[in-house]
Amino acid sequence: MTARLLESREIAPEVRHLVFQLEDTECLAFVPGQFASLTADIDGSPITRAYSFAAPAEGIRFELCLNRVAEGKLSPYLFGMRPGDQIQMTGPWGGFIFRQPVEDSILVATGTGIVPFRAMLLDQLVRDSGHQFTLIFGVRYERGLLYREEFEQLTRDHANFHFWPTLSRPDASWTGRTGHVQAHLFQATGERRDINVFICGLKAMVDDVRAILKSNGFDRKRIICEKYD
Length: 229
Description:
With about 230 residues, the chain is of the alpha/beta class. The chain is built from 5 helices and 12 strands. Strand 3 and strand 4 form a beta hairpin.
């Protein structure tokens, strides 16, 4: 499928939110949490990378969010695209989605690992007031809290949603949670082991959180992971 770029905006240093529209189909159906694969010819070779959808499905439009990888090939290309430019897309792919029936869930993200959770929560919260969702989002600096205002608004609009931004390198003015996301897991879960935990981010964090949960009695089927490297 051919996707045409409609909008590209910086939402944090070296992070962009992109809005595309498909040119050759009437509808794009996907489940929030899934991803698209984008392909471009770079230096004479096709380069394909996967990017999670950043918002629920909306006709033929879809949203992505990505950071520029310093030594990467496709992310600099995408950062250089201008509205009207086209790229090839396939999908949707992946199974990193809310399990059915949905249960109380902890969502753990670092960096752009927040992207699928944005889509999942925007979709789920508008029709689910009966389950509790806690988002633990870890970044180094306050400026890296992607979509912060949106998540803060969701906490005001939905009593069953809790947003825990966490900084590992806070400045003196920060009064919120500090350290790494691992340190806040069991404040979120308490004594419960009948709760699903979704984890998304770089491999080291994902593997560490998963190991902590398993060593503390969580069934592996309740630990759902997506790695970004």
